[in-house]
Amino acid sequence: MSTKSASAAGVAPETGTATRVEDAVLQMLEEQGVLTGINLNEVAKAAGVNRTLVYHHFGSRRGLLRSAIKHELRRRQVQTRTPSQPMNLGARVVHALRSLLGGGSSLRLTTLLHLDGSTAPRLMPNAETTLLQLERDRALGLVPDVDDLPALHATYAATVYGYALFREIFARDLGIDVAELDERVMAQVERLYDSTGAAAPPQGK
């Protein structure tokens, strides 16, 4: 889109360029997979822009990937807030999994960043809030009576991240439609974590 046509459409030229580049990254990731990486020359070519413009807007490969994550979450209208109300542990884990599955390529982009040595975005952006809520819900009997809530949080985060990353492979190997497997896995996850909570004896007894 030219500067003149972008202005006529009511879109800032720089915003239109940035969006094209972000869309190109998401499309490349969808077609080529995570392990191919993201080459800025290829991204610029796919977006139909000069490589210099990519650096102008994003500064670096990591900057581009972070921006593409935000773009994907905005596009899909994904809410990343931790639910504030008391919840059974199983329901909390399922909520986290649904949020990840609704985020499209954002998790794969985040994985790329961390494999590249980045520390942002955080895999647990709401960790402090979640731990406080787990402590409250443990007192209410909704969470197992364990003395290591950070490890519990890491355990269920590993469950949801692992499934979200490999769900298509799991579905292929099991011969199950991926959407059907999603629902079956979430049902099992909720039962598993809730039964764990019900079976856990109080500490010190």
From TrEMBL:
Q: Which residues bind DNA?
A: 39-58
| Sequence ranges assigned to domain HTH tetR-type in this UniProt record | 15-76
Which Pfam families has this protein been placed in?
A: TetR_N
Q: Cross-referenced InterPro entries, in alphabetical order?
A: Homeodomain-like_sf (IPR009057), HTH_TetR (IPR001647)
Which Gene Ontology molecular-function terms are recorded? DNA binding
User: Which keywords appear in this protein's UniProt record, sorted alphabetically?
Assistant: DNA-binding, Plasmid
Task: State the protein's name.
Answer: HTH tetR-type domain-containing protein
- What is the source species? Paracoccus jeotgali
